[in-house]
Structures are given as structure tokens and as C-alpha cells.
Write a structure and sequence with these properties.
two-stranded antiparallel ribbon; globular; two-stranded antiparallel sheet; binds iron/sulfur cluster; about 90 residues; single chain; 4 helices; alpha+beta; about 20% strand; Alpha-Beta Plaits
Length: about 90
């Protein structure tokens, strides 16, 4: 079976349960050339767009990820984990 790329964010470090407001940091978004990531409000019943605790970064377009690890390396909170899938292992070895 083909292993897909996995990108996870620890929102206890950045986002609704963390100390970093992703709208003020945005470093992972800035360095990701293929624009895999998206900053968005949490989808609660009554989201408050002015509450920094209600915004998070997530990986949306996983198939575009090149596995460059720039987001992991630049994140000041060590909040991002990228586990390359089989297709990325191929790309990175060529
Ligand atoms: S590993 Fe690279 S391409 Fe993938 S999400 Fe992070 S910065 Fe973007
Ligand atoms: S680089 Fe890290 S701390 Fe900054 S917005 Fe992205 S996940 Fe949050």
C-alpha cells in the first residue's frame, strides 16, 4: 500500500491551546513555496475571528508537499511534523 505524506500541527504550541498566535508568526506559510498550508479559524459553532486562540495553521494541499522540511526547520515552536510518504521519498532521491 502507498504511504501518504502526513503533516501534523501541535495546536497546544501554536493555535487555540498554545501561546503563539499563528496570524502573527506565519513563518511556515511564508517558506512553503507550493502553498500546502492554510491559516484559518477553527470551525466551531460560534467562531470568533478576533480571538487569536481560534485560529490555526493546517496542511490542506498535501499532494503538493515536496518534503523540503522548511516549515519544520523554521517553526519557533517545534509545532510541525512532516512524515514524507512514498511519493516524496521518490522525489527526494532523484
Ligand atoms: S515540507 Fe516543505 S513543501 Fe511540505 S509543507 Fe513543509 S514547507 Fe511546504
Ligand atoms: S511557524 Fe510554527 S509557530 Fe509559526 S505559524 Fe507556523 S506552526 Fe505556528
Amino acid at each position: 500500500m502507498v504511504k501518504k505524506t502526513k503533516i501534523t500541527f501541535d495546536h497546544s504550541k501554536c493555535g487555540f491551546a498554545g501561546t503563539t498566535d499563528p496570524r502573527e508568526c506565519r513563518e511556515c506559510l511564508r517558506v512553503c513555496d507550493p502553498a500546502v498550508l492554510l491559516l484559518h479559524p477553527t470551525l466551531e459553532d460560534h467562531p470568533d475571528p478576533h480571538n487569536p486562540e481560534k485560529w490555526i495553521v493546517d496542511a490542506i494541499w498535501l499532494s503538493k508537499c515536496t518534503g523540503c522540511m522548511r516549515c519544520v526547520e523554521i517553526c519557533p515552536e517545534n509545532a510541525i511534523e512532516v512524515v514524507p510518504g512514498d511519493s516524496l521519498a521518490y522525489i527526494r532521491s532523484t
